[in-house]
Structures
1.
Amino acid sequence: YHALAIFASVWVSTMTAGILAPLSGWLFVSGSFIFSGSLYLLAFTSIRLFGAITPLGGTLLLFGWLSLAIACWKIN
């Protein structure tokens, strides 16, 4: 779903001149990288610190959805 959201943020950014749509794309990319990457590192290394980083990625994904929703709302 987040890969589709990245495409949606690019599409919305072509319709609006604001910064929220490109910001949402970067939030989705960085959130997916941190969320998935920390879980992969936790699985392969068993270092528990990587599990503590995972919620940061999830928070970035939530902010990505929020900024995309606000950007879509501003189109109308």
Note: DSSP finds three helices and no strands in the chain.
2.
Amino acid sequence: MRHAVRHKFNAVPVEYDGIKFPSKKEGNYYLQLKALVKSGAMLFFLRQVPFHLPGEVVYRVDFQEFWANGEVRFIDVKGVDTPVSKMKRKQVEALYPVKIELA
């Protein structure tokens, strides 16, 4: 019998539209973005946008949002914000002209 693998932060994986999300929180955020696009408030969004850091490290932000008013936002959906995550986010913000927001 195969046992479900538990996430280290007790996140429960979900799947919407054939896309696997590591947590319900991230999956639900995706559904909210789809509704915003349908309403016209948001033009579109991208998932898992890579930022290349020194040492061949890649930090992937969960969503990049393109709003109808011209605003562009970078969002990471976090249940637990670890010290490593905070450090990499600060590196991205130091190297690129972006601000990564947490959801």
Note: Residues 51 and 59 are 5 Å apart (CA to CA).
